[in-house]
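[User] Once you have settled down, look closely at the record that follows, and write a paragraph about the fold.
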Amino acid sequence: MKLATYESDGAAKVGAIDDAGSRIFDLGGAAKRAGVDASLFASMLNLIDADDAGLDVARTLLDRRGDEADLWSSLRGTTLLAPLPEPRQMRDGMSFATHIRQSGRGARAMQAMQVGGVGAFDRVMAEPLPELAAVYRKIPIYYITNRQTVVGPDTIVRWPRYSKVMDYELEIAAITKRTRANIRAADAGGHIFGYTILNDFSARDRQFLEMEGRLGPAKGKSFDGSNAMGPWIVTADELGDPETLNVEVRVNGETRATSDTSGMLFSFAEFIADAAQDETIRAGEVFGSGTVGNCCGLEIGRFLKGGDEVALHVDRIGVLRNTIVAQN
């Protein structure tokens, strides 16, 4: 099932997307009509908290009332919000070796450009890739990002005034269900509610400056709109294996990168299990995979400019589009 948060009559509602990806079904309205507890669908967090029982109710409503035309709206005229507008927590990982190696080279190229200009940048980008540091295979590497800067599909992201180097990052995000500490990796799959697309926008110039101080990223990753998610959540049972997805980045319609999600250094289950060591993981948290290889500008030496539309395409999920506006 594909589940979205959308705006209707000035309020946020939870709905289910049809198989064609063209219509949305009002789950709360259907619940009221059926005499079912509509509070299950007051927010995506409410539905996540209801666990499998809530999803069963949603499926039953679709099955029994899916032929009632007035419960459906066309997506063409509907404003989709972030599917989980207020996550309870957000962690973002470094799961793809190609990205780690290429982004490290890209960072060195940016530093070289400050001294030697574009020629120096190009020379570093042509160098062989470094080996993957051993730590990335020892433990999942991640940081806690700002859960309050989440925006949805088709949102305009106003780039922070303190940055001139604008970058996108295509990621897959897992959303948790159930609240528990010390989750075993073998059981962690049962704690995944579903998956969505995450664009982890990055102010690269500020990020690299911050990390010279051996902390961060802070303002390099934390500004209004920096965590774009959507267009909806695909439940774990429908998506299947998240490491079998083909992905594509398009900027203004031009394909910048194609890749896939195979070969994660640590699976989502292992990532969740590691984070859950003596720490309670709550329903409604977001675990970002980290950038899929080739799927950010830093890796290929091509960044964004004001007015660019970034579209992240992911198999079995959909397309997340956002437009960048540079501020004076």
